[in-house]
Design a protein that fits this description.
Number of domains: 2
Radius of gyration: 22 Å
Helix content: 40-55%
Number of helices: 15
CATH architecture of the largest domain: 3-Layer(aba) Sandwich
Number of strands: 5
Strand order of the largest sheet: 2-3-4-1-5
CATH topology of the largest domain: Rossmann fold
CATH superfamily of the largest domain: P-loop containing nucleotide triphosphate hydrolases
Shape: globular
Largest sheet: 5 strands, parallel
Distance between the termini: 57 Å
Structural class: alpha/beta
Order of helices and strands: HEHHEHHEHEHEHHHHHHHH
CATH class of the largest domain: Alpha Beta
C-alpha cells in the first residue's frame, strides 16, 4: 500500500505519517479511545484518515493496516461486516413511516457505498441538501447493538458528523447519537469526522477524544500531484500554493485548471468593489439556480486565493497578478483585505451548511463592499 494510492482499495492519507504512527502505537497498545473526533480543514483527508484507522483496528497483521489481509481487503472495498461507514445524504421522499424511512436511508447508503467502491474519491450528492437524520442515527444505534461478525471489534465511521444538526438547528439527531456515545458497547469504536467541530453539540465534543488532521506541507502536495496524478511541475506548484495545505483543495484546483473558477472569483471581487448595488445583485443571482452550490465553492476558493495575492501586493511581498486588472491603481489596506478573507471563510462555511447560494453570495458581497470600498486609497 503506497502513500496516497488513488486506486480502489485501502488508501493511506497523504502527508500524515506522524499522526498515523501515533495512532498505530495506540492501537497496538490497546490505548486508542473508543470515540474519536477526527477534525481539520475540509479536504485535508478526514475521510481517508478515518477509514484508514478503521482498517487498522480490524487488521489481522502485526503491521497495521497491512492492506493485504482479508480484513484490510474488505475494508478497502467497503465490504467489511464490522466497519459501518455513514455520511450525510438527502432525506428520502415518500417514506410513509419511521420504519420505511430507516429502510430507505439504509438503501441509499448501500448505493453510495457501491459508488465509492468503484470510485473512492467520488463526491456524493453534490449540490444537494443532505443531513444525518434521526432515522440514520437509529440505524447506527441498531448496528451498534449487534456483536461483531468477524472479530472482536465493530467500527463506526461517521463522516461530516456536524450534519447531525440540520439547517433548522434541531439537535434531535445529535441528541439521539449522544446516547450511544454515553454508553458505547465495549466492542464498539466510533470515529467522527468534521470540518466544523464547533458545530457539534458540546456534549458530543466532550465525549470524544480530538484528533486533528493538520494541513500538509506544500512540497508534499506538489510531489503527490506530480508523481501520483501526472500533473506538471507548474500545475502542481500553482495548485499547492493556493491550497493552504489542503490536499483535496489542491486536487480540485489542479483538475479545474486556471479557467472558470478563477474567472468567477475575479467577477465576485469586481462586484464587491463596485459602487453599483445592481452589479452585486447580478453577481449573487448567478448562483441562485439548482446545483449552484457545486460552482460556488470553487469560485469562493478562487476568490480567497485572489485576495491572498492582493494582500501580498499590498504588503509589498509580491507583484499584483495580471489577472486582476480591475485593481490597478486601487491599492487596498491590508487590514481590510484580512477582514474580507474572513468573510469569504464565513461564506465557505455557509456552503458547507447548505445555505442558500444566492443569499450567501449577496451577504458576502455586501460585507466585502463595505470594508474594501471604504479602504480604497487614491494613488
Amino acid at each position: 500500500m503506497t502513500d496516497g494510492d488513488v486506486r480502489p482499495g485501502l488508501r493511506r492519507p497523504i502527508g500524515q505519517d506522524e499522526l498515523l504512527d501515533r495512532v498505530i502505537r495506540a492501537v497496538a497498545a490497546r490505548r486508542l479511545p473508543q470515540s474519536l473526533l477526527i477534525h481539520g480543514p475540509p479536504g485535508v483527508g478526514l475521510r481517508t484518515t478515518a477509514r484508514w484507522i478503521a482498517a487498522a483496528l480490524q487488521c489481522e497483521s502485526e503491521e497495521r493496516p497491512c492492506g493485504a489481509c482479508r480484513s484490510c481487503r474488505l475494508a478497502g472495498t467497503f465490504e467489511h461486516p464490522d466497519i459501518h461507514v455513514h455520511f450525510p445524504m438527502p432525506r428520502p421522499k415518500r417514506a410513509s413511516s419511521r420504519a420505511k424511512l430507516r429502510e430507505a436511508i439504509e438503501k441509499q447508503r448501500m448505493e453510495r457505498l457501491a459508488q465509492l467502491r468503484d470510485s473512492p474519491e467520488a463526491v456524493l450528492d453534490r449540490g444537494e441538501t443532505t443531513g444525518l437524520y434521526v432515522a440514520a442515527v437509529e440505524n447506527i444505534r441498531a448496528q451498534a447493538a449487534r456483536r461483531p461478525a468477524m472479530g472482536d471489534r465493530t467500527v463506526f465511521v461517521i463522516e461530516d458528523a456536524d450534519a447531525m444538526v440540520p439547517q433548522s438547528s434541531s439537535p434531535e439527531a445529535a441528541n439521539a447519537f449522544l446516547k450511544l456515545l454515553e454508553e458505547p458497547p465495549e466492542f464498539a469504536f466510533i470515529l467522527l469526522t468534521s470540518g466544523r467541530p464547533d458545530a457539534l453539540l458540546p456534549t458530543i465534543r466532550s465525549r470524544t477524544a480530538p484528533l486533528r488532521v493538520a494541513p500538509v506541507r506544500g512540497e508534499r502536495i506538489i510531489r503527490h500531484l506530480i508523481e501520483d496524478r501526472g500533473a506538471s511541475a507548474e500545475e502542481a506548484e500553482r495548485a499547492a500554493a493556493q491550497s493552504d495545505g489542503v490536499v483535496g483543495r489542491a486536487l480540485e484546483i489542479w483538475e479545474r485548471g486556471p479557467g472558470d473558477a478563477t474567472e468567477s472569483g475575479a467577477r465576485l471581487l469586481s462586484a464587491a468593489l463596485s459602487g453599483d448595488a445592481r452589479a452585486r445583485f447580478e453577481a449573487a443571482g448567478a448562483f441562485s439556480a439548482r446545483g449552484a452550490r457545486a460552482a460556488l465553492q470553487p469560485a469562493l476558493e478562487a476568490l480567497r486565493a485572489q485576495l491572498r495575492d492582493v494582500l501580498a501586493h499590498a504588503t509589498g511581498a509580491a507583484e499584483l497578478p495580471p489577472g486582476l486588472p480591475s485593481l490597478r491603481g486601487r491599492p487596498l489596506a491590508p487590514g481590510a483585505l484580512l477582514t474580507a478573507m474572513e468573510a469569504v471563510e464565513d461564506a465557505l462555511e455557509g456552503v458547507a451548511q447548505n445555505l442558500n447560494p444566492q443569499a450567501t453570495v449577496s451577504v458576502l458581497l455586501g460585507d466585502m463592499n463595505r470594508v474594501l470600498a471604504a479602504s480604497t486609497r487614491e494613488p
